């Protein structure tokens, strides 16, 4: 079901981005970038609603995810992080991560 | 080699095929053949074969070769009888009636050609060929041309690095094993000098033992290989140009390791760790981490493996392969696997797609059981899949597991993390789905091990999100000691089963200050709120925050992320003694409560909106409130006492 998977760094550049070849990759790159705006908007919201909103936004994504993707992604991401040879900010070149992403893109597609 | 072949071709072309053509052998072949000839001659009772009359004799023309050693040798080559007859004919033994050195050598070369699938012709032996292979019995470490009845089906592979790999492709059935051997042997960098190769021959039959289904494979090759280590080790030309002695020794050790790898790399199993390699790895492990049952942290391992001069992506991939449970640290079997992969890579082997079964931690622990590894054994047995193991490995694992289960300590963090995760309501529902989703892939053991850890990481994500939200700390409004804040802390304690452990991670145990954003927040909070405690708060924060940060990392084995989510009680108990030492006992331990409550309340509110308050919380709130008031008074008093001391000291310092 996933047609595009991207991991964005803090500095808004992609650490990892991959999309199924059927669609135009550029379009997905744009989409990812615009989604960053949505996240920023959520984060920058002021007031008490901030935490609630964000939690609703992100929190629901995680525990109640319909597609069991985020967890796997996050687990693989932490695996990559655990690797002492990985410098934060590098592109993600882990084969295990690639395999997991491939499996996710294939699985429900 | 090519010159010799060309010369032989020229000579053969010059002289027709009537008599045995002058044969120029390579140095390797020369040595090998002369040895074989000597054995035949010696076995025949003659002296070392130098002169033709001393050579063994074989009755020409007999269908079944005589019991002479030469005949035995030829039979040991496992060629059909007619081929052998052809060979004896071609080499000229039949013509001259005996096996002189020339005939013998030609015959050997023809045998090699026949074994390579080439037709038995004089022209065949003009090209480079592998050394002939003979079936040997495994009496002791030496080659014996035993009787056919004694042959146990083992094969001796005389390694022979040749440029003509295509000749390996055409093989008989029995040479199929060599087909896998030679491509893997060829990348080895050692020069094809014959004596070490030949000396390796009697030991190599140990390798074939492993390939065949005979038992007792492991001890003999390991023992046999040891005497070979010395001559090979001396020939290892380690680049000792590194200025640092440590690095020089390391580089030399890596090149020695390469030699060890040469000796011990089973032709078809380069991923098997031998005994010497194992010992070497264990010694290196000990140099990094004295306790063999503990871990090497990621940074230490990174520094160590970086010295191997492999590229970072490769090291990263090796780490990925070898760190089976992906915890950022290497246990002894993981370390051995990683080291072995590095050595293999340096020797030119391409890195495998997945961790080979002989390098998996369960296998390594089973193959080399040591009492110190009991805890890891238990860890692996609780999660290992037998599917990957070969039958004999399973037997060994079962034996060791039965032996060691009795001594095993309390379950490791994987199991405890399971318990912790059971507490999380939000994760539980996802658990069975995740486990059921994972198919039985070769990586199942890894994925299974990853599952418990994944649950702990799932909590991390929420927590991290919360923390990041709090990171720019805003000074809270002043008097914040309300019921809600106090209640939040108690809710943690009371609702520990129901509250996600993220809270506990966020809320560092009360006596110590929470990590990262908290010290700054706590400072601000204390400034705002408790003026009397102002002087002590920063110092306390400074004291406790390093203490708090140190505690998770100092907890053995160093797995800080997981440790953070241990049940709060345990963490609380751990924290309390540590901070008690830093400050006044009871007051200090209770002092951070208000500060923690304030900041945690802010952080908690978001989560608490999702949690329902019930009446127990209210009762606890009231109780806590009274307790806090009392402690506040005590802290006040201590602060006053400290200020007095400060006043007393001040005049002294001024002077």
TrEMBL record, chain B:
Amino acid composition bias (Pro residues), ranges on this chain: 507-518
InterPro entries found in the cross-reference section: EF-hand-dom_pair (IPR011992), EF_Hand_1_Ca_BS (IPR018247), EF_hand_dom (IPR002048), EH_dom (IPR000261)
GO biological process terms held by the UniProt record: endocytosis; endosomal transport
Domain EF-hand: 310-345
Listed Low complexity bias regions: 577-589
SMART domains per the UniProt record, alphabetical: EH
GO MF, one example: calcium ion binding
Domain EH: start-end pairs: 29-130, 277-362
Coiled-coil ranges per UniProt: 607-648
PROSITE patterns linked: EF_HAND_1, EF_HAND_2, EH
Name under which the protein is recorded: RALBP1 associated Eps domain containing 2
Lineage: Eukaryota, Metazoa, Chordata, Craniata, Vertebrata
């Amino acid at each position: 079901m996933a047609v595009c998977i991207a991991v964005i760094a803090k500095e808004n550049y992609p650490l990892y981005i991959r999309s199924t070849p059927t669609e135009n990759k550029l379009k997905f790159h744009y989409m990812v970038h615009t989604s960053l705006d949505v996240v920023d908007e959520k984060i920058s919201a002021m007031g008490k609603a901030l935490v609630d909103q964000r939690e609703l936004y992100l929190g629901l994504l995680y525990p109640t995810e319909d597609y069991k993707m985020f967890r796997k992604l996050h687990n693989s991401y932490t695996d990559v992080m655990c690797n002492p040879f990985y410098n934060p900010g590098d592109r993600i070149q882990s084969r295990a991560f690639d395999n997991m992403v491939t499996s996710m893109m294939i699985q429900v597609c | 080699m090519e010159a010799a072949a060309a010369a032989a071709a020229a000579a053969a072309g010059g002289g027709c095929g009537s008599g045995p053509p002058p044969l120029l052998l390579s140095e390797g072949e020369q040595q090998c053949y002369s040895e074989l000839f000597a054995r035949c001659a010696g076995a025949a009772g003659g002296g070392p074969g130098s002169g033709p009359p001393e050579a063994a004799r074989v009755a020409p023309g007999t269908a079944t070769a005589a019991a002479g050693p030469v005949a035995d040798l030829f039979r040991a080559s496992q060629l059909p009888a007619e081929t052998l007859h052809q060979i004896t004919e071609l080499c000229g033994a039949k013509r001259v009636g005996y096996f002189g050195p020339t005939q013998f050598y030609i015959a050997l070369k023809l045998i090699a050609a026949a074994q390579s699938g080439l037709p038995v012709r004089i022209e065949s032996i003009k090209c480079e060929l592998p050394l002939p292979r003979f079936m040997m019995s495994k009496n002791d470490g030496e080659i014996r041309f035993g009787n056919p009845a004694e042959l146990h089906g083992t094969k001796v592979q005389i390694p022979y690095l040749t440029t003509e790999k295509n000749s390996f492709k055409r093989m008989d059935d029995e040479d199929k094993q060599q087909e896998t051997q030679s491509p893997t042997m060829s990348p080895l960098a050692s020069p094809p000098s014959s004596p070490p190769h030949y000396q390796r021959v009697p030991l190599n039959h140990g390798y074939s033992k492993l390939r065949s289904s005979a038992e007792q494979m492991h001890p003999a090759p390991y023992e046999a290989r040891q005497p070979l280590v010395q001559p090979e080790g001396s020939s290892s030309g380690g680049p000792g140009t590194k200025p640092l002695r440590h690095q020089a020794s390391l580089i030399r050790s890596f090149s020695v390791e390469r030699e060890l790898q040469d000796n011990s790399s089973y032709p078809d199993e380069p991923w098997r760790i031998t005994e010497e390699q194992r010992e070497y790895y264990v010694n290196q492990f000990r140099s990094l981490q004295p306790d063999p049952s503990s871990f090497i942290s990621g940074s230490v391992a990174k520094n160590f493996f970086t010295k191997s001069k492999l590229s970072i992506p490769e090291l990263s991939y090796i780490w990925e392969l070898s760190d089976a449970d992906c915890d950022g640290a290497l246990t002894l079997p993981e370390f051995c696997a990683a080291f072995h992969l590095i050595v293999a890579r340096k020797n030119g082997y391409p890195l495998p797609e997945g961790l080979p079964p002989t390098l998996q931690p369960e296998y390594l622990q089973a193959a080399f059981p040591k009492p110190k590894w009991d805890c890891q054994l238990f860890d692996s047995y609780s999660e290992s899949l037998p599917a990957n193991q070969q039958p004999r490995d399973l037997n060994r694992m079962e034996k060791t597991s039965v032996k060691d289960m009795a001594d095993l300590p309390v379950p490791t963090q994987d199991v405890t993390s399971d318990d912790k995760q059971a507490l999380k309501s939000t994760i539980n529902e996802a658990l069975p789905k995740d486990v059921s989703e994972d198919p039985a892939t070769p990586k199942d053991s890894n994925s299974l091990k990853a599952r418990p850890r994944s649950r702990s990481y799932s909590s991390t994500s929420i927590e991290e999100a919360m923390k990041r939200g709090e990171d720019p700390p805003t000074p809270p409004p002043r008097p914040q000691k309300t019921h809600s804040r106090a209640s939040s802390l108690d809710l943690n304690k009371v609702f520990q089963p129901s509250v996600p452990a993220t809270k506990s991670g966020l809320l560092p145990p009360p006596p110590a200050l929470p990590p990262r954003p908290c010290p700054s927040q706590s400072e601000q909070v204390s400034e705002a709120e408790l003026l009397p405690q102002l002087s002590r708060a920063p110092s306390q924060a400074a004291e406790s925050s390093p203490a708090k940060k140190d505690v998770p990392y100092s907890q053995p084995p160093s797995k800080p992320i997981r440790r953070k989510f241990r049940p709060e009680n345990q963490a609380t108990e751990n924290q309390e003694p540590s901070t008690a030492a830093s400050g006044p006992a009871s007051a200090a331990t209770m002092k951070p409560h208000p500060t923690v409550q304030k900041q945690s309340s802010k952080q908690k509110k978001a989560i608490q909106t999702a949690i329902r308050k019930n009446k127990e919380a209210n009762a606890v709130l009231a109780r806590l409130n009274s307790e806090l008031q009392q402690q506040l008074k005590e802290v006040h008093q201590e602060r006053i006492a400290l200020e007095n001391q400060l006043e007393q000291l001040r005049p002294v310092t001024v002077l």
